[in-house]
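User: Hey, quick favor. My workstation is busy. Could you predict this chain's structure for me?
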Amino acid sequence: MLYEFAGYDTAQWPDSYWWASGPALASYDAVQGCVAADVAVIGAGYAGLNAALELVERYGLRVAVLDAAQPGWGASGRNGGFCCLGGTRLDAPAIVRRTGADGARDWQDFELAAIERVRDNLQRYDIDAHTTEAGEVLLAHSRKAWARLQRDAAQDKAAILWDRAALRDQGLNTAAYHGGVYVPHGFGLHPLAYAAGLARAAAAAGVRIFGNSRVTALHPTGGGWVLDTATGRVHAKQVLIATNGYSDERLPRWIARRILPALSNVMVTRPLSRGELAAQGWTRQLMAYDARIMLHYFRLLPDGRFLFGARGGLSFAPAAVARFAARARAEFEVIFPAFAQAETQYCWNGLVCLTGSLAPYIGPVPGAGGLWLALGWHGNGVAAASEGGRRVARALMGEASAPPTLSRRPPSRFMVPRKAALRGVMMAAALRDGPVRPVR
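Assistant: No problem, here it is.
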């Protein structure tokens, strides 16, 4: 564990708005005795459940999904609910340099397919995930960022530039942004309702889901793998690990220091009045985030509450969490001064997963036949992990080209202590981003 135990304690659900407002969650029993499966999936989040559905529906396999808690306990049930483009920290030129023009197009196709995968899942499995309007807007926090967004938007035919006046006209007024670029892809949703719906669909399709079943040992055996838990054992021909930022880096040891779990923090206000929304001039339920390295992300929820997220923090210790929450709240009030009297009613955090390659990894564990990984969504896993789970399922069935080219490169190890590296990145980001302040 890179952080304190409190962040991994599966006996405690986060005090999140999603937990308070979501559907009644099914409780899946722990593994008991010996269980046989064609494929065992570790992690009942978006990637693991989509992989399980693909393996059952397309290939008719016996699949067992094991989770240390219950479906949706981890990042899949506590994120900001942005079904959007993303999944890598590499910009477009860097992707071209790494994969070539064909690989870059392959990644763009994957991003769009990922959004459609979520849309199809919601319809196919009759999941009510409280979806909001289509599209997202990237906001410039400085004049330099605004100039950069304008240059980049010239390369995207779907992008629409909005200066400060246009943002006001669009019902997206803030005190802190110089302009923004809108793209028509993606939509907001209730992430825990989506995760719970996937679990329900998987169980109905014949997937065996086991909750409270932390895998404590994983070792090869003749013709497959054995997964031990506190209450039972699973024998499987192949294993998929889809635990993202909550991965146990001993299972397998190959993964050690190849991922970097990082904290992301979310707060949700009480419902805002029509007068407060009108006074601020933010009336759209559009996904929005800013161009900072340590970004803020936010959106108006269907019931009138406002969700505001911020990346950062280095500890799950209560005092550290409280300090970061206070800082994020102060930044929220600078950006949205008309909402300053709207108290925070929910506040929680969780882990996103970065990798040494700055891209997801969807592929086999080198030197461990039948052992696969699908993780590293870089804070944009609602869509990317959903489609990534489908692609890794096809890959372990022999379709090696199913994952996008960018995701087939195994991540390198971080060669310096990761928390120290993260602290350095945050300090450098703070200098580059500058303070949150009103536009003058």
